[in-house]
Task: structure prediction
Amino acid sequence: MYLGKLGSGVPTGNGLVRAIITFLEDQRLEPTPVNYTFAYRVMSDPAGELACEVARRIDGGFRLSSSEVEELGITVEAGGRSSIPPDAMPPSVQSLAMSEADHARAAEAKQQIAGFEAMVSAMHKETRAFGRDLAASADALNAVPGPDIDAAIAELASITAAMRARVEIAEARLAQATREASELRQELAVAHEDARRDPLTELPNRRAFESALTNRGDGPFHVALCDVDHFKSVNDRYGHPVGDRVLKAIAATLDRECAGHLVARYGGEEFALLIGGVDGAAAAALLERTRRAVGARRYRLRETATVIDGITMSAGLVALLPGETIIDGIARADRLLYAAKRGGRNRMVGETR
Result:
């Protein structure tokens, strides 16, 4: 039976939401709709078969992997909507679902832009046809006998006026299509940026970090994984809104201290750093200075003026090997991060070679 720190009862309402979030944080699972649904099934039926199997697998301090979540049979209804009640879905997961809808709108926008381009091409062809008709009319006018010239000129004037009206309509349609295409391109750029940015801290998110080596030039590169120590106690004692403000402050500190390098929110209270262009000693010194800066901050609650201190961070640091991906580097840095945790927290552990 998986009960974690919930006691012996089945949680309901806000208690269930908190239990689900705690489970995801403990297992270091991203709060995606799939993972949230999985956690809901575990926590809402702690005596069930799924919860028992989870308890067996995490016994001894192990964490579930994404592949294990899939293996254990998580399913999501068609359209990306999970089978959990709406009131059990926290805003953070709702925002993820909305971002998926944004991706669908972006795909639709691309199709619309393609349609605009086809319309512009058709307008160009129509304009060329106008030119050919006008040239043909001029040739016909030259061949008209003298007595019939006035009637021919009147006919040509009528054709020309009709052509001009059609051209003006085409130009108006083209201008409107150009404006709409420009607006759609801006929306696509915003959607693309939002999909790669963490909404709370405004740092790049995990997706952006894991693709960060593309077109970044030569190394060396070092990867660090950082975790706020005992962060759950901040949420438990002061509430999640305060915890969110603390995370934003820590993110700002990391971003300031590591200017020129990539800082991302990797998930929960974890942050990832990609340090480029410096050797191992310089990367370690930068990370240690950053870790100390986080520990030196004091956080004051606006509502009560209460000071929260003692918030520290542990970190693991590795050098990326030739041909190694960022994800592989993160996996190695994660092992060193756990070594830092086991060593007493509030410290940085780098690899030894």
Notes: The beta strands are 221-228, 262-267, 270-276, 299-300, 307-308, 313-319, 348-350. The longest strand covers residues 221-228.
